[in-house]
Amino acid sequence: MKTNQACVLLFVFSFLASLACRTVTEFANIPNPEGLATDAFLPTIKPSTWTPPPKFTTTPGPSPTPQPTLAAEFADLTQFEAALRPEFADDAARFPHATRYVIDVTVTFNADGSATLSGRERLRYTNQQAFALNEIYLMLWPNHREQYLSQMTLNAVRVNGQEVEPILERAGLAARIDLAGPLEPGASVEVSAEFVIEAYPGIDTSGAARFGLTNGVLLAPTFYPLVPRIAAGGQWQTQPAPSGGDTTNSDTSFYLWRITAPADVTIIGSGTLISTTQTPTQTQTATQTQTLVTGPMRDLALVVGPLEKTQRVVGEVTLNAYLLAENSTYRDEMLDYAEGQLKTLQDKVGPYPFEELDLVDAPGAFGGIEYPGVVFIGVVGEGGAFESAVVHEVGHQWFYSLIGNDQLQEPWLDEAAASYTEVLYQEAVNGQSAEDQTLREFERYLTFTDHPDLPIGQPVDDYSFGDYGVIVYGKGALFFNALRQQLGDETFFTFLQAYYAEYRYGFATSAGFQEEAEQACTCDMDALFDLWVYEGGKVGLP
Predict the structure, then answer these.
(1) pLDDT single digits (tens) 466-501
(2) Cβ 357 vs Cβ 320: under 8 Å
(3) Portion of the chain with pLDDT greater than 70, in percent
(4) pTM (2 decimals)?
(5) What is the architecture of the domain spanning 77-395?
(6) With b meaning 16 or more CB within 10 Å and e meaning fewer, what string describes 36-60?
(7) Where are the domains of the chain?
């Protein structure tokens, strides 16, 4: 087992290294954390503007055979029921105006270690605002220079069949499409686009990226042009993510999508597989094509590479563990951790409505990163960090994927909640002493900052790079515990279940969270929320 010193070296002064080592040694001689990035267990390498090395002029590899355009039946919501557990099939009909995407993407692995994604997309967007829209935006997240080892080009954009010229903004991160006329409330528009992405290796060596290649595996979350949210002020949310925070904010949508890739690799994606074909050829690399469909989901993640699959059915949910061959001995541990958290949160918060959940071995993808229906685990086999990363990221399937929130402006709503699910997991799986130890570790986080009185409810950008993780993750988990103590267990879990029911597939706010808590207890909680969430101050710890 790793010593505390080894863990500190691994995470380079990250305070979260302490949690990775909790089952091994005490918290002695851990330096002040400097630099946290997106999720559970993170390197302290502060992301910086990344430029592909000169050698990556991309040497093309053999191209899979292009497929005919996937048909788009935008009006048929029943097609999305295949990704939902039978008792939740009716959930699809709750969102008649949600954006629909139909996506085709072909993945080619190049001779120089890079990969190319060539894609086409059609979408139907309905204006759900109370005012007319004069433009629509597409986010090109592979052009985000801090966490994405990639470059994306947008081509052949059409609106209702008419070719248009998008205007690139924010250094190519956002494409503005001016509409020929106002899109009135309730009206819809169809947009199509072609795109090409060059993805580069280096996730495993940088330890601070979410898009690119690691150990020959392509990680490609949000690889397609994505319609962003319109924030409360009526503005499209197109700003780049601050250093240290998660990137995308998007509303629940429906996806029918197809991936073509070499036949000798594994394809993993958000949603449920509905068809697969193989295309052997004499002159080109044999290919496979998989078609997937999602239920109501905010985003997609795609993974393609040499991964081995192990499957476990837990109730009505299928857990899929995908690991590199050298890590295959950890498959049962990964599934055990995920099963324990799945059972815990279905009992304490609410049901997981989808047919499956994928867990992916992704060395270097921070410690772990969450996407709807798919989680990346960057620390497979790393002792306590491995367990906690799986538990934390599975927790995000409830807090971020199902209950959405603004990850830039109110990150505590998903990160503090996911951190507290670690406490719930330890309590349910390992007992009271493990729960108490986890809470003591979160208390220890507050010794790693000079600003322990900061509130947990600030935007990512308002924290220093180190304080973000200490306050939002660590102090945030302690807030959930303080709320539980004030409400009592029965009322606390009644609140969590009501909060889940109210905001499942929706978008929560701090005010909405407090309102649900106050309804559960029929009491005023301004003082508690001011102290912990909004204003800050010295909090009493047991």
Answers:
(1) 899 999 999 999 999 999 999 999 999 999 999 999
(2) yes
(3) 86
(4) 0.89
(5) Sandwich (2.60)
(6) bbbbbbbbbbebeebebeeebebee
(7) 77-395, 403-534
